Amino acid sequence: MDYLSYNISKNLNRIRISRGMSLDAVAEQTGVSKSMLYQIEQGGANPSINVLGKIISGLRIDFTELIASPPEESYLIKTSDVLPIKEGEKYTVKTCFPYEDNKKIEIYRIDILPGGVYVSGGHGAGTREYLAVLEGVLTVDTGRETQDIEPNEIFRFNCEEEHKYINNGDSRVSFICFFTA
Questions:
Q1: Domains and CATH numbers, the chain
Q2: For residue 27, how far is the Cα from the chain centroid?
Q3: What is the pLDDT of residues 94-118, one digit of tens each?
């Protein structure tokens, strides 16, 4: 389940429970069937804009309240379940935790096949990137320097300008990127 569907499912359930409402009561108030509401809360449905409109109108909440990150202390991401936001012939990029107003960090998982190169644009003034390699050997070209990073190593650099992630090896490279301003 992607993070937006997860947010909607958790927030809908939290809002319903905090108001002491049953699924039947929410269905009656919103015009969305009880079974659809249940599927949304369980993360088994991808509701249409029309359905989301009925929910926010019926519950009298802002759209952002429904899609915002739920107020949780912990949250598990299975990168195998996350859909790529970018794909090339030899790389995939997955958003694990997107940038949010209340959390000034982004976290991505990137996989690059042998011989692959992923070119990233700059990430804004004052942004730093932290890389933790999970497998393989990653070469990072920051435009000012080139650095090889192996598993169990973490590399930090200013990522305001275009930079490249390169796999010069013969096996897949997997790493996690953390961006912070």
A1: 3-67 (1.10.260.40), 79-180 (2.60.120.10)
A2: 30
A3: 988 777 655 678 899 999 999 999 9
